[in-house]
Amino acid sequence: MSTPERAWLIDGSLYVFRAWHSVDAGLADRDGWPANAVYGFTRFLLDFLRQQRPARIAVAFDEALASCFRNRIYPDYKANREPAPEELKRQFQSCKRLVSALGIACLSDAEYEADDLIGSAHAVLREGGHAVTIVSADKDLSQLLAEGDEQWDYGRDLRWDARGCVDRHGVPPGRIADMLALVGDPIDNVPGVPGIGRKTAAILLHHFGGLEAVLASVDQIAAMRMRGAARVAQALAERVEQVRFMRGLTGIALDAPVMRPADSYRPGPADTGSLTGLLDELRFGPLTRRACLEWAAREGACGPAG
Hints:
The protein is an alpha/beta fold. It folds into 2 domains: 6-168 and 253-296, 5'-nuclease (Rossmann fold); 173-250, Orthogonal Bundle (DNA polymerase, domain 1). 46% of the residues lie in helices and 8% in strands. It is built from 14 helices and 6 strands. It has a 6-stranded mixed beta sheet, with helices on both faces.
């Protein structure tokens, strides 16, 4: 049996945020706006492209920071997050322009988050017979891992597959969203059940076989050989509908508008005119410029000159 050709889906927003916090804030574009996040993201992306030479790839960005379908369902979703400053918003736009100019599929949408775009693209690529590497440290994305897939925390060079998901998160991929509905997710302002942490959630999900089975068996939890079982049973009994509702938020949507079929994710010709204009605008140095143009000039990748 042949090994399926690998495709790569990058959680672009994660690496923009990391660069925003770690790269010298003194870097500026020709208009004086900060360029540190786009510079750090560019260096990450170029390093990745040189290493992997991907045959199929997409980079997803968060655009739905306050307009996501989850906000309509639950207005407090991510309400604890401060709005991104204008200096960062501008750099997100530059990162998206860079990805597109390099001929790489750029995914963003006003109603779906980057996780949903990655999940939907993952479904297309799997349908096309491809194993997928998800380049991100985000625990939520582990719920997508199927046989042959892996997740790669690029910055820490940590990789795990569906089996490794259990070691890392305590539950298999298909139970990640169930677990988050029980324990909550402070990052997304999703409340959990008091007294239920990841270990307890993993025990319950393993014992009963899934979230709906747990909720249908609340009256049995108090008798389990588990520390604080009676307290957990009472807390969960008081929040059955809350947990069921939150499960609608913690799962990744697979119906976001993404490109089809799988061949749509092949790197296309670079737009060298747009690319050189953007590099001038960002005032990138010669090494970064050269690396961008080398990718653009790879065999079969020459696009419009301007």
